[in-house]
Specification:
The protein is 38% helix and 17% strand. Strands 1, 2, 3, 4 and 5 form a five-stranded antiparallel β-sheet that branches. The protein is built from six helices and five strands. The chain is α+β, with helices and mostly antiparallel strands and 191 residues long. It is globular. Helix 2 packs across helix 5.
């Protein structure tokens, strides 16, 4: 890898930030596929491929909003204004991508490793979307644990919705991330 290629990759990683208000244009199916390909290169012990994605776009966002509202109500949300507000969450971006960990029983690959694999896949996806000029935000919340939601999506109860990724174009530029002093977070162990 050339120095300029390294710098481009490194800059892309450093510039990634969550952006909450996203609009059109959205990535095309081809652009999404590039990012899914990047996601699926994440570390994956024994190549179990526990990570799967569900894309919600266009008119499907309204139906997904209704499903989210039913799911939060099923989880015990009693505030009707909050339930109504959840219906509009899918309209925060033109495309939503659910990252799912489909746990597989394996003697050498515990579930936590499979969860971490999905986390790495999501990070690859976010970075790939950014490299293509799009912005994202990775959200979760209690709703991702809803049995009603999982069932409606054809998932098993033990599957984990590892997050809902909102994808689109940023409405405005945000300030660059400030440099992080890694010395505060890194320790070199000595025996």
């Amino acid at each position: 890898m050339s120095d300029s290629d390294f710098k481009a990759v490194h800059d892309n990683i450093h510039q990634r930030q969550s952006i909450g208000h996203l609009v059109e244009p959205a990535p095309t199916h081809e652009q999404l596929n590039v990012s899914f390909q990047a996601a699926l290169t994440a570390p994956d012990h024994h190549r179990l491929k526990p990570t799967q994605f569900i894309v919600i776009d266009g008119e499907n966002r309204a139906a997904f909003g209704e499903l989210l509202a039913k799911a939060v109500a099923d989880l015990g949300e009693l505030d009707s204004a909050q339930v109504e507000r959840v219906k509009h969450h899918p309209f925060r971006a033109p495309i939503l991508v659910l990252a799912v960990t489909k746990f597989q029983d394996h003697a050498k690959v515990p579930f936590f490793e499979q969860t971490l694999s999905t986390g790495a896949a999501v990070q690859n996806f976010l970075l790939s979307m950014q490299a293509q000029g799009f912005a994202t935000i990775w959200r979760s919340g209690a709703v991702v644990e809803s049995t009603l939601l999982k069932k409606a999506l054809g998932l098993a109860e033990r599957d984990l919705i590892s997050g809902i990724i909102y994808v689109g174009t940023a409405v405005k530029e945000i300030a660059p991330r400030t440099e992080i002093d890694s010395a505060q977070y890194v320790e070199f162990w000595k025996a």
